[in-house]
Amino acid sequence: MNLLPQCFLYTQDEELVTRVSGYLKFLARVRHVHEPHELEALLSQYTPALVLFDLRAEATRLLLPRVFKDLPETLVLAFGLARSNPAIEAEAMGAYAVVGFDVERQRLQALVNHAQDHLKVVRENQLLRRELPPRAQAEALEEPSPLQAAPPSLHHLSRAFQHFDDADMMLDSMVQGIATCAKVSRVGIFAYDREAESYAYRAGVKCIEDTRSLKVSRQDPLVRWMNLNAHLISRMRLNVVENPAERAILQHSLDAMGAEVLIPLHGRDTIIGWLFIGHRVTGMPFSQADLEELMLLGEHVAVTLENQQLYEKVAVQKALADTVFDSMPVG
Q1: Assuming Cys at both sites, which of 148, 197, 202, 277 could form a disulfide with 261, CB separation 3.0 to 4.6 Å?
Q2: Residue 181 and residue 151 in contact, taking contact as beta carbons nearer than 8 Å
Q3: What is the DSSP letter of 141?
Q4: Which residues contact 11 (CB under 8 A, 6 or more apart)?
Q5: How far is Cα 151 from Cα 181, in angstroms, rounded to an integer?
Q6: Is residue 91 within 8 Å of 98, Cβ to Cβ?
């Protein structure tokens, strides 16, 4: 979800965080993690991933073996003292590399570059392995689902219009209505923030905590893909995307939001945001008819969101004009 690839730095040493973040500023988005349970949760969500591991950190002797055992595709670049027992153990368990805390900038950058190239190939291979043979793929697209859901009723969204003058309340009511009418376990919405010049999480139901902090720029590969292709993204239909690099970007985006479907919200000129949808509450996969209905739902949400943003802009201009008028001296 970012122009730069993401990696995790597990340490309680703030000085190491500052130094490593500075070294990798233009190569990767370094995400500092200081709690063992937080690292395990993130790695289960973002896999495969690159972890920069401080061997002095809390619970390292317990955490590191679990990472190698449960997440074998995770690459571990460890920081430790040369020839120390923790460094030797990390190498024996299969660490990608072990470097000293005084590692030179060029060496660390080269190691991270090679690791990210390796992970890119791993992600593309994962997607290729999931692809169906051409005949099975055609049959899967044509075969109707035995449990097609009824088209979602838009009357569930009517309550959102009661809060048209309050964007937060309107979006919160909107996602609640979508979760009800589409019978899904998770719904969230990202919308463009003019002040921050990026897309940000605005409202959701049962969303992953990590999703709430995501910020996505207009230049992000996901946004560029949605602008060029103008159709929804479904985890089940990723195999129809021909470019392996694009499939990897879409897969990563779905994983980051814990979503099965991502629906772009198109304004008059550009993407104004997107909806992301989790599993159906029944656990059954979405049928082709379900996806068509969700796309229709997304079009109604896009119109509502754009109109609300326009209303908000006009309200601000009116308030400014009233303030200026009230401040004028009596003629």
Answers
A1: 277
A2: no
A3: H
A4: 17, 32, 34, 52, 53, 54, 56, 57, 79
A5: 9
A6: yes
